[in-house]
Write a structure and sequence with these properties.
Elements: E1 7-14, H1 19-26, E2 33-37, E3 40-49, H2 55-66, E4 81-83, H3 87-94, E5 99-101, E6 105-108, E7 120-123, H4 136-146, E8 155-158, H5 164-171, E9 177-181, H6 184-196, E10 203-206, E11 218-224, H7 227-239, E12 241-253, H8 257-265, E13 270-276, E14 281-287
Parallel strand pairs: 6-7, 8-9, 8-11, 9-10, 11-12
Antiparallel strand pairs: 1-3, 1-4, 2-3, 5-6, 12-14, 13-14
Length: about 290
């Protein structure tokens, strides 16, 4: 989103790998935009409004990534107050590249002209909302949807971000599909992406977990968020899952699975499947 006239803190990270992982870690701290340094593509710039920036929390987040073997070899953190501009446009031009998921689904932006041909062709103009398919958690969730018979099944996508997962579900025949997003700018972006892909029947709702109270239970419940949010909100998630329905969760590491399973078991949900990426990010499928 454009920050007209705002003064932002810019935190730059020297990266060897894992920029998308770092973006997912910083987003909950209020960081809205990410772009490579123009003259050095090993440096990622992360932008947050000055009034909500927390330097210590940012250092802690960066350290957590540095501890992940092979992701980051060096981190340099610096801050600078800068005039606002359209950081989205820069990010889209330089960072978001077309991606193919499981050889069956290509995800690209509207400005991409050269990308692979796949049975499912999805256009996502991210505007910095999370969920382009590049992060392991998003691709794990996308693969689950591609491997599952969704025709005529109802789907709730909690924390939809760009709307990608909801769009995949609709393209694979799910109906109705409801997408919920707490951030107003991300919700607007999801609406735009839904329209770009010709699936205006997807109901995109602005709200937090309390929005579920007005939604009928679904055959499939999706939540690609993070461990702490899932642990706090899973009772409401479970209340909106039909008997014999499946809940697909991601946004956490392999070592978090046991505590998630414990919380799920107390709600009558049991493991139906799991996947772990080579970086340790995981997805968990639960069945009622």
């Amino acid at each position: 989103m454009s920050h007209s006239g705002d003064m932002d803190d810019s935190i730059s990270f020297t990266l060897s790998d894992g920029a998308d992982v770092l973006a997912s870690i910083l987003a909950p701290l209020g960081f809205e935009s990410f772009a490579p340094e123009t003259d050095d593509d090993t440096i990622m710039l992360a932008y947050v409004k000055k009034e909500i920036s927390d330097y210590n929390a940012t250092v802690t987040a960066a350290d957590s990534l540095a501890n992940m073997t092979g992701c980051v070899k060096a981190i340099i953190i610096s801050t600078e107050n800068i005039e606002g501009q359209d950081w989205n446009e820069e990010w889209e031009k330089h960072y978001f590249q077309p991606i193919v998921v499981a050889g069956r689904c290509v995800i690209h932006s509207s400005f991409h002209k050269d990308y692979p041909i796949c049975p499912l062709d999805i256009t996502i103009d991210p505007k910095m909302a999370f969920g382009t398919g590049h992060h392991a958690t998003t691709s794990l969730m996308a693969k689950f949807l591609l491997d599952t018979d969704l025709k005529g099944k109802s789907v709730i996508d909690m924390g939809t971000g760009t709307g990608l997962l909801a769009i995949i579900a609709a393209m694979r025949g799910a109906s109705p599909v409801t997408a919920i997003e707490i951030d107003p700018a991300a919700k607007d972006n999801a609406v735009e992406n839904v329209a770009l892909n010709g699936h205006n029947e997807i109901n995109v709702i602005l709200g937090d977990v309390s929005a579920l109270e007005n939604i009928a239970p679904a055959d499939f419940f999706l939540a690609n968020i993070n461990r702490n949010v899932i642990l706090a909100d899973i009772p409401l998630y479970a209340s909106r899952l039909k008997q014999d329905g499946l809940m697909a969760l991601s946004g956490f590491y392999q070592e978090d699975i046991d505590m998630l399973l414990e919380a799920a078991a107390n709600l009558g949900l049991h493991e139906h499947g799991r996947e772990v990426s080579d970086t340790g990010w995981s997805s968990l499928i639960l069945k009622r």
